Amino acid sequence: MVSRKQSIHKTQLSKTKKQTLKVTIDRPIGYTDKFGNVYPLNYGFVEGVIGGDGEEQDVYVLSRKISEPIDTFQGDLIAVITRNDDVEDKWVVAAPNENFTIEEIREKVHFIEQYFDSEIKLI
């Protein structure tokens, strides 16, 4: 039997396609969360897109060229991280013409995703 979350997730994932997105950064490189996790990348959200937790869709920003905190980022949706043990997925956005393998993405998001049963799907 497919759970409601799995059903919703499959519907959302089937609608997710490669697209250019504007990301508002609320956890820039160097940010430390309440659990002591230091963010080695810029992390934010897409305004107007609601994620599985009812808040705006969370996004990991990957770039080989950006190593400083930023306020906003425009890039391409390259992957979706499905959390099998959580209510929301995370999106991965990269600079246009920058590609990352699943293993590279896994390595970069490990600082948080290590706490979840996550799967990465390239778009």
From TrEMBL:
Its EC number is 3.6.1.1. It is an enzyme of class 3 (hydrolase). One of its GO terms (cellular component) is cytoplasm. Keywords: Hydrolase, Magnesium, Metal-binding. It comes from the Bacteria. GO terms for biological process: phosphate-containing compound metabolic process. Its cofactor is Mg(2+). The keyword Nucleotide-binding does not apply. GO terms for molecular function: inorganic diphosphate phosphatase activity; magnesium ion binding. This is inorganic diphosphatase. It comes from Listeria monocytogenes.
